[in-house]
């Protein structure tokens, strides 16, 4: 079969012939891969930089996808290290790391959107209080999204509103992309680095942080400095590291306020929590509840697509189209 094969951490995967996967153990299933997205985690694992990267090469690229199983059903799956990647005509999935999808979904849309969407969905539903049930209007939570102009951030704005946030402040670098976010539910927008950020976001309850690094610390300092009550809880959820993998957080932030810093990603939640939450997210995406952009390419174009400049749409490879 054909697959996107990584033979070097320094080069994009190549469209190559590889043996069909055969070692299907109990709790696993062989699937025909319909679509697999090129996410940051996909690039991170392929470059050996991600904490879940394989330490031996060659490996097949791709951490998640949509596939049709031997039972004819469509599933969204996530590949744990040790299983073959998703960017191949066929792969083996773990049945406790996948969910069934409605039969009429667009596989490319789901393959492109599930990874960026699950960041905020799981953070709000599983990591912070106030989003499991719709709260009365007066008690609805206020959310700040840092890095709101990317795929995950745009979805985070929409998902926070969908799950009942009363206010969503969108902060990002690109002023043009930021200007599109009020139409998606943002109640305010502000560029990262704008001194007004601290005042605008001073009373938020939750921060969904896709940037981390020094940018996050500057934003944190600005929010905490303008806060009315130091005992007012602030849940800061680290989701991505676009501005840096380390954030030099002064201890005084934690001692002098009711700030809680936590993360949400592979490893921070149990498989059971994810399996419980993801069907509702998949259904909302399939119904078109959230606006998101995906662009498809056949898997044979993997090396070219891997190096293409970012145009704001999530790239999805479609192995079945070869
Ligand atoms: N924890 C999870 O479950 C999870 C799930 C999905 C993604 N993530 C992580 O979330 C992050 C964003 O992913 P994505 O899918 O939204 O990526 P994306 O679509 O490529 O968007 C990247 C975003 O990062 C911003 N950015 C890039 N460099 C920056 C910098 N130096 N300072 C501030 N902002 C910067 C971009 O801003 P401009 O457009 O304004 O330039 C854009 O908003 C990644 O780190 C990814 O690994 C985590």
TrEMBL record:
<dbReference type="GO" id="GO:0016491">
    <property type="term" value="F:oxidoreductase activity"/>
</dbReference>
<dbReference type="InterPro" id="IPR011032">
    <property type="entry name" value="GroES-like_sf"/>
</dbReference>
<dbReference type="InterPro" id="IPR036291">
    <property type="entry name" value="NAD(P)-bd_dom_sf"/>
</dbReference>
<protein>
    <submittedName>
        <fullName>Zinc-binding alcohol dehydrogenase family protein</fullName>
    </submittedName>
</protein>
<dbReference type="InterPro" id="IPR051397">
    <property type="entry name" value="Zn-ADH-like_protein"/>
</dbReference>
């Amino acid at each position: 079969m054909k697959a996107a094969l990584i033979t070097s951490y320094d080069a994009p995967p190549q469209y190559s012939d590889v043996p069909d996967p055969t070692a299907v153990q109990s709790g696993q299933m062989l699937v025909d891969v319909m679509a697999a997205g090129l996410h940051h985690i996909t690039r991170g694992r392929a470059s050996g930089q991600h904490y879940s990267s394989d330490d031996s090469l060659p490996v097949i690229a791709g951490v998640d996808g949509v596939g049709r199983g031997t039972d004819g059903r469509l599933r969204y799956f996530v590949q744990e290290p040790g299983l073959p990647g998703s960017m191949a005509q066929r792969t083996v999935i773990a049945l406790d790391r996948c969910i069934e999808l409605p039969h009429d979904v667009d596989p490319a849309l789901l393959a492109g959107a599930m990874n960026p969407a699950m960041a905020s969905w799981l953070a709000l539903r599983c990591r912070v209080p106030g989003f499991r049930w719709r709260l009365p209007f007066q008690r609805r939570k206020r959310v700040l999204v840092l890095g709101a102009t990317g795929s995950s951030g745009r979805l985070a704005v929409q998902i926070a509103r969908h799950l009942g946030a009363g206010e969503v402040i969108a902060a990002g670098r690109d002023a043009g992309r930021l200007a599109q976010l009020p139409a998606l539910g943002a109640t305010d927008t502000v560029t990262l680095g704008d001194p007004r950020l601290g005042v605008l976001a001073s009373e938020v309850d939750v921060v969904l942080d896709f940037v981390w690094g020094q940018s996050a610390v500057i934003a944190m300092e600005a929010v905490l400095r303008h806060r009315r009550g130091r005992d007012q809880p602030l849940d800061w959820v680290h989701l991505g590291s676009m501005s840096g993998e380390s954030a030099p957080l002064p201890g005084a932030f934690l001692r002098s306020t009711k700030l809680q810093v936590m993360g949400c990603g592979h490893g921070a939640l149990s498989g059971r929590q994810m399996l419980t939450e993801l069907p509702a997210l998949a259904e909302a995406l399939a119904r078109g509840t959230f606006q998101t952009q995906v662009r498809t390419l056949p898997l044979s174009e993997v090396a070219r697509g891997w190096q293409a400049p970012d145009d704001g749409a999530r790239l999805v490879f479609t192995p079945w189209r070869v």
